[in-house]
Structures are given as structure tokens and as C-alpha cells.
């Protein structure tokens, strides 16, 4: 179990919503609907009177947290030796480009690609210009 929750193996702590905030209440509502066996289409519909950008932001963060947890459970089985290429089957290879260290699309082993991807997503989620923590402040062009 220690290996699954080892931050060095790309597991990151969940991003939390402050209790008492509107986003916390939206998060609780989203969690309740997903755990109740409700129709998935109905579960993700914007609740009446809520800000669409806040609703989307809550779901993006929840999705990141879930993917992060899932990846944390399998990352020990995908090493640079066993997964030398980040691929989506035999026909698709994913290459990393970030315009900083990797100026051109670069083939990387899957664990290295995933570490870079999860770091990049975390930076985006923590960017106040994209995902402000103040309710109702998301930029319209982001969504």
C-alpha cells in the first residue's frame, strides 16, 4: 500500500474545496449523484441557478483526482522497461511537447510521459487565471 501512495510515483494529494463555499456544496452534490446510481447524464447536468464554469471546474478537479488515484495503483507495473512508449494501442503513439524542455513532439517512456502530463494538469488546475478559487470568477473563454 505504501507504493500506491508514494508521491514520488506520481500520486498527488487531492485538491480540496473549502467547506462552506459554493464549490464545496457543488462537489458534495456531484459526489452524491455519482454514488446514488443516478442516470449519468442527469448527474452532470448543471443544477438550476449554478454557474456553469464553477460546475465544470468541480468536475475537472474530481476527474483529475480519480485518474490520479487510478494511475497511482498501476504505475508500479508500467516501468520504462515494460512500457518504453506511451501508446494507445499499436496504431497510436503519444509524444510530449511542452515548448519548454521539449520543443518538438518527443517519444518518451510511458511513466515519464505520465509524470509530465500529471504535473502539467496539476499546474493548470492550480492556475488561478484558469481555475480561480473565488466562486463565479472563471473566465468565459476557458470553458
Question: Can you give me a brief rundown of this structure?
Answer:
The protein is mainly alpha-helical and 143 residues long. It is built from 4 helices and 2 strands.
Mean pLDDT: 79
Biggest sheet features = 2 strands, antiparallel
- CATH topology, what is it called? Butyryl-CoA Dehydrogenase, subunit A, domain 3
The CATH architecture assignment turns out to be: Up-down Bundle
Helix content: 25-40%
Overall CATH class: Mainly Alpha
Strand content: under 5%
Q: How many helices does DSSP assign?
A: 4
Task: Please give the radius of gyration in angstroms.
Answer: 17 Å
The overall strand count is 2
Q: Which H/E pattern describes the elements? A: HHHEEH
Strand order of the largest sheet: 1-2
List the keywords.
single chain, 143 residues, mainly alpha, Butyryl-CoA Dehydrogenase, subunit A, domain 3, elongated, metal-binding, MOB_kinase_act_sf, transferase, MOB_kinase_act_fam
Notes on the protein architecture:
Pfam families: Mob1_phocein (PF03637). Keywords: Kinase, Metal-binding, Transferase, Zinc. With 143 residues, the chain is mainly α. The chain has four helices and two strands, in the order αααββα. Helices cover 40% and strands 3% of the residues. The protein has helices at 22-35, 40-43, 52-74, 110-125, and strands spanning 95-96, 106-107. The chain has a two-stranded antiparallel ribbon with strand order 1-2. The protein is elongated.
Amino acid at each position: 500500500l505504501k507504493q500506491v501512495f508514494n508521491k514520488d510515483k506520481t500520486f498527488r494529494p487531492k485538491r480540496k474545496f473549502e467547506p462552506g463555499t459554493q464549490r464545496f456544496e457543488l462537489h458534495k452534490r456531484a459526489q452524491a449523484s455519482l454514488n446514488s446510481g443516478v442516470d449519468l447524464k442527469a448527474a452532470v447536468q448543471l443544477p438550476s441557478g449554478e454557474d456553469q464554469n464553477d460546475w465544470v471546474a468541480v468536475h475537472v478537479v474530481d476527474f483529475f483526482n480519480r485518474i490520479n488515484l487510478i494511475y497511482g495503483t498501476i504505475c508500479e507495473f508500467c516501468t520504462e522497461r515494460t512500457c518504453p512508449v506511451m501508446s494507445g494501442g499499436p496504431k497510436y503513439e503519444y509524444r510530449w511537447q511542452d515548448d519548454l524542455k521539449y520543443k518538438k513532439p518527443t517519444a518518451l517512456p510511458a511513466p515519464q510521459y505520465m509524470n509530465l502530463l500529471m504535473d502539467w494538469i496539476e499546474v493548470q488546475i492550480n492556475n488561478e487565471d484558469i481555475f480561480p478559487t473565488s466562486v463565479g470568477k472563471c473566465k468565459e473563454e476557458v470553458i
